[in-house]
Amino acid sequence: MEKQKRIFLSSPTMNGHEMEYIQEAFDTNWVAPLGKNVDEFENELAAYVGSKHAAALSAGTAALHLAVKLAGIGPGDVVLSSSLTFAATCNPVTYEGGKLVFIDAEKDTWNMSPEALEEGFRKYPETKAVLLAHLYGTPAKMDEIMGICEKHGVPLIEDAAEALGSTYKGRGCGTFGKYGIFSFNGNKIITTSGGGMLVSDSEKDIIKARFWATQAREAARHYEHKEIGYNYRMSNIVAGIGRGQLLTLDKYKEKKQHIYQRYQEAFADIPEIRMNPLNPDGEANNWLSCITLEPECIQRGISPLVIMEALEKENIESRPIWKPMDLQPVYQENDFIQVASFNGKSIGRDIFDRGVCLPSDVKNTDEDMERVTQIVKSLFRLGR
């Protein structure tokens, strides 16, 4: 029996414009971590999100690391971080010897709970920075988060790796905090195959980030180093891919929003399925569309694992919700702040236990979407 077409979670989608910029780099022999594509990608990305300055880097994690350094985080410094996120959000704090304290999510957007953040400041008044992730492209409650950070005089670092193109009250995610970062990994809404961007309204800080990212080489004829630097700069070839991708970002966002709506409509008659919530004060890029299953589903034998295995059997990719950082073995000694619970668990743990990320590839056709939704719906028809 012939295997059915593979449906991906979120794979790279080339638009054809990328080769124009790549070819220019080859023609001018700028095949290095320098060049016109790097400069212009920084300018174009900053303009798109509404930031004054940007540094193109080798990965979103590199951007987060430099943001943590710019915030002055050192050994023992407390950073209050989103718990329901990918490990790359918070690992750079550990690189610098900082002390991570994880903040639980809230049910309305799945992002950092403002109430738990305030409790974090009460318990750790010495906090030096807040690290917030916009989960799956949905904007966090930025008015509340910013108000708390400003009240305590602490800088916010926004991990907008999943939220390029998302906005909160018309303002781009990644531009509220002192520093914002974006990722261009292969599964993101646009990709450079691998890469990231650090944005800030501080020209001085972006210049410093570029300096660190090029091995902290001083302006001397010989190779002079007074600080530890990193090999974090983006290549001119990779930046060319990014420039081409940026031209169709809005189109890709519209398609991902359409995918979310298709799932919402398809599952409307199954009360046990809930879509990941959206922030009514913002516009999500819907990077990944997710569902959670009501507790009675688990009792009936329909679990996230059952859904993922049923999809994989039909050559369809899906994956679990991020496992919260407070549950990760590597961070088992770190403090965790929660102020609410659901089903007897933290909000983040409950979402993780009941959630599934569904295929959200911009290349998905209506037929692909029908395949996915029918497989999920069939599990409920069977009643298991």
Oligomer: single chain
The number of E-state strands comes to: 17
Q: Which class do the helix and strand fractions yield?
A: alpha/beta
Helix tally?
13
Q: Sketch the topology as an H/E string, one letter per element.
A: HHEHEHEHEHEEEEEHHHEEEHHEEEEHEH
Radius of gyration: 21 Å
Q: State the CATH class of the largest domain.
A: Alpha Beta
Strand order of the largest sheet: 1-9-8-5-4-2-3-14
Low-pLDDT stretches: none
Euclidean distance between termini CA atoms: 26 Å
Specify the CATH homologous superfamily of the largest domain: Type I PLP-dependent aspartate aminotransferase-like (Major domain)
The proportion of strand residues reads: 15-25%
The share of residues in helices is 25-40%
Averaged pLDDT, please?
A: 96
Q: Could you say how many structural domains there are in total?
A: 2
| Overall 3D shape | globular
Here the CATH topology of the largest domain equals Aspartate Aminotransferase, domain 2
**What CATH architecture of the largest domain do you see?**
3-Layer(aba) Sandwich
Main sheet properties: 8 strands, mixed
